[in-house]
Specification:
This protein has 225 residues and is mostly helical. It has 2 domains: 58 residues, no CATH class; 152 residues, no CATH class. The protein contains 12 helices and 2 strands. The longest helix is centred in the last third of the chain and has 17 residues. The chain binds zinc ion (2 copies).
Amino acid sequence: MSSTYCCEKCGTQVPELSINQEGWKAIERSLMNKSATLAVAELKHYAGCEEKDSQQFVDHLLRCSYAWPIAREDELVLSKVEKAFAGVKKPKHFTDYTHCDECLEHDQTLRNSSKETAKREEFGNAGWDPITFSTGEGLLYYFPVLARFALLPDLWVNNDWYGEQIVSHLTWDGKSNKLYKQCNSKQKEAIFMFLKHFEATRARPINNYMITEELNLAIKIWSDM
Ligand SMILES: [Zn+2]
Ligand SMILES: [Zn+2]
């Protein structure tokens, strides 16, 4: 049994493992091939830990946006985003929750979570995406964690790359975009900076997911502060 620490964001107890860069690469590769089992085996090998600890560690990697080591340049952009959105209060409701069962379910998902504890699976996929149903205020509240998920690789075993979803949330309705309408100029500037960084550093998944045109549109919308 390894000793554990408490993730200061999501509150999960995580085994304390030492993993070198090669180990991280191997885990990332396994998860990008959508194999959590292989990731657990790789981690067990690289960290020299027990299966159970490895499993627990990988479970955290697959849920929490704060579980991954983040490149310095990414962290700089994310901290600017976090700063611009720091004062945003969590809305009481996120959707038109009395409208139908789907609106109610998405509202509950977003209400029960928070921008600190949000898990990747809570933001679903393009076909089942609570954020699509959220108000502009709700998007404003969750944006920093969405940006964080978007900068993580395409490694979610049960979900697609989040980069695809965030671009769609930032372009929907063009200049009438519900988030755009909520943002002050500082927040718009932070999102524009995020998009330029995303474009410059995520060329491969942007190409794989065929979102180049949509991303160009997003940059155009958000460049106008
Ligand atoms: Zn966590
Ligand atoms: Zn509805």
